[in-house]
Design goal:
There is one protein chain. By secondary structure, this protein is α/β, with parallel strands linked by helices. 48% of the residues lie in helices and 13% in strands. The chain has 13 helices and 11 strands. It has a 7-stranded mixed beta sheet with strand order 5-2-1-6-7-11-10, sandwiched between helices. It has a two-stranded antiparallel sheet with strand order 3-4. Helix 1 links the parallel strand 1 and strand 2. The longest helix has 20 residues.
Length: 327
Amino acid sequence: MHRVAIVVQPGIRAFDLAVITEVWGPDRSRLGVPPFELRRCALDQGPIPLPGGLTLVPDRALDWLAEADLVVVPALAEPCDPSPEPLLAALREAHARGVPVAALCAGAFILAEAGLLEGRRAVTHWWLAPQLAARHPGILVEEDLLYVADSGLWTSAGVASGIDLCLHLVREAHGAEAAAAIARSMVTGPFRTGDHAQYLDRPTPAADRTAEALAAVRERALRRLHEPPDVATLARWAGMSPRTFARHFVAATGTTPHKWLLGHRLDEARKLLERTDHPVPEVARRAGFASEVTFRQHFTSYVGVSPRAYRAAAAPRNRDDSVRKGS
């Protein structure tokens, strides 16, 4: 069972707490999602006040971080409020043991206060990025990304990007299918990469027709990833020139059509590697890559391991799921 620790303290944002709880809290074994043990870990065991008149009761002390496979840190409503030194020390100890530590939104300020982000890349809400950089000039603050990983430390941008990071962490630990199942149950998109822009130009009412056309194109492209459609084809489906289509696409999604297609093809390839025994060339073809060589290059660059190594790592996880279902 994958053990996830939420580090809680007075003043944490209820939204961040809810996102973490929704991703790792419910039992979704009927959807093929592995079981998680989610614990709320605090310095003191008494009720903790949250903004908005809410109260949280922790169920573990900070020493439970020693048993966790993942530590997640919600943001404080007041990002610059100090955190207790024992809490910061527990985060440093968890990271030193090699446990991934992830902070949502302004939770990056807590990791920075613990000294964990010095000399490393990090991201927070775009509105707070200049403040984080000014308070901690040793941090390489990214101002436009959704989430960033550096040396086992994960930080995310504001609000909804916390969902993206949490789903990505599930995807990294348990595979694309588990992350997609959780996303479906949450009625949210399963896949936004970290290099999506934080701040997007939203369509105005006058641009509704364009937004609908782009949504229809994306849906059509997802049904035909195996073909695969190129950007010129997508533009033709939308009834636009390639240049106009690319401009509207970036405004609507925060990324280029090419990157969007590549991300979804790689996600499809991960599912095929996890769920089928198709040879790697067949996986490449079904995921829409023109050649096996191109597929291997993109997959290794994005995931960090080769397709064969990824399949080998997923095999024990799939066997464990079969044992649980048959027991």
